Amino acid sequence: MEVNTIAIGCDHAGFPYKKKIMKFLETNNIKILNFGTDSLESVDYPDFVHPVAEAITSKKADLGIIMCGSGNGVAMVANKHQAIRAGLCWTAELAEYTRLHNDANVLAIPVRFISEETALEMVKVFINTEFEGGRHARRVGKIAINC
Fold first, then answer.
1. Strand, coil or helix: what is 108?
2. How far is the C-alpha of 19 from the C-alpha of 24, rounded, in Å?
3. For the chain, is the Cβ count within 10 Å smaller at the N or the C terminus?
């Protein structure tokens, strides 16, 4: 899968990392749909994560990157959307396997627990890893609940 567009969103805790990640994506000619926030002012992360999930669901973005202090809140919100598989990662190896085995389409980053360098490496690996398919496709197919 060629990654052309990435939707990105975060709360105030994620904002400093978001700036660095956006710069990295821009230098790699990846279009960014920035859903905020764009300051350190306290905000509610669901307001910025739902639009990321909707951009992926509507095929306006290929993948998403979401960030908050622990990564848990943003991952929980994103995973409420049936077509979203958000993986909370704190190493590049986890970012690789969440794409490789789980076909994750959103990377959740816990900015208070990893360095900027690790976050950038995770993004790089996440966008460059293809879903392996095979036995994993069967399992991924069982994730969504059809309501």
1. strand
2. 9
3. C
Residue 142: Cβ-neighbour burial (10 angstroms; 0-12, 13-18, 19+): exposed
Q: pLDDT tens-digit profile of 44-56?
A: 999 999 999 999 9
Q: How many CB atoms lie within 10 A of CB 24?
A: 15
* Model pLDDT for residues 85-94, shown as the tens digit of each residue: 999 999 999 9
Helix 116-128 with 92-100: angle, nearest 10 deg: 20
Q: Locate 35 and state its tokens.
A: 């859903």
Per-domain residue ranges of the chain: 5-140
pLDDT of residue 147: 60
Its pTM stands at: 0.95
DSSP conformation class of 56: H
Name 11's Cβ contacts closer than 8 Å, sequence gap at least 6: 37, 42, 43, 44, 45, 48, 67, 68, 69, 73, 74
Second CATH level (architecture) for the domain 5-140: 3-Layer(aba) Sandwich (3.40)
Please indicate whether residue 50 is annotated as part of the active site. no
